[in-house]
Amino acid sequence: MTSNLDPDARSSYRLITLAARLIQRRQDDALAPLGLTRAAVIALEGLTGGPLNQEQLAEAIRVQSQTLGRVLTRLEATGLITRTRHASDRRQLRVELTDSGVAAVDAARLAEINAYPDDPDIAWKALREELTKFVRAIPVNRGAGVVPFAPPEHRAGHVHRQQSGRASGLRGWEQPRQN
Question: A Pfam family for this UniProt protein (predicted)?
Fold first, then answer.
């Protein structure tokens, strides 16, 4: 199969995927001493605004509930979350961060930040803006199973910038800055 894509665009795409793999590898290395994976950190971050049931959390972080269940089992076994039966619906489990879970989120965020290159010549704002345009340009119906983490907006006390369109699936650090 041949592509009509501009050679510069193809080279840029390859650089994006290479950069993503390199950062993911560095994040994995940074999280390993904490006993965490990126999937675990995403689940933990999804709970920072307050307790949710498993289905709400799965929807908030855009993963399958069954897949999330395995991650939650590991997080519960390590004491980072608790799962308790919901008072009004015994079929539902309330998932909540423990104090250790809150500390793990903080440690994971610091570890992930330290995994990024510390180069003053990198124009982070310009890079974020261009990557945001790139993500917005990806058709919604293509690759629907791969959606970046989006913090839930329904939680009480949760401060979240309102986004519209395709950008709503971006993490806070991927969001264009509001001046």
Answer: MarR
Burial of 170 (0-12, 13-18, 19+ CB in 10 A): buried
Domain that includes residue 18, residue range: 7-174
Cβ–Cβ under 8 Å, residues 101 and 80: yes
- Domain for residue 65, yes or no? yes
Within 8 A by CB and 6+ apart from 162, the residues are 153
Q: Which residues contact 26 (CB under 8 A, 6 or more apart)?
A: 115, 116
What pLDDT, on the 0 to 100 scale, is given for residue 158? 40
Number of domains in the chain: 1
Residue with tokens 């307790």: 51
Residue 36 CB burial class (10 angstroms; 0-12, 13-18, ≥19): buried
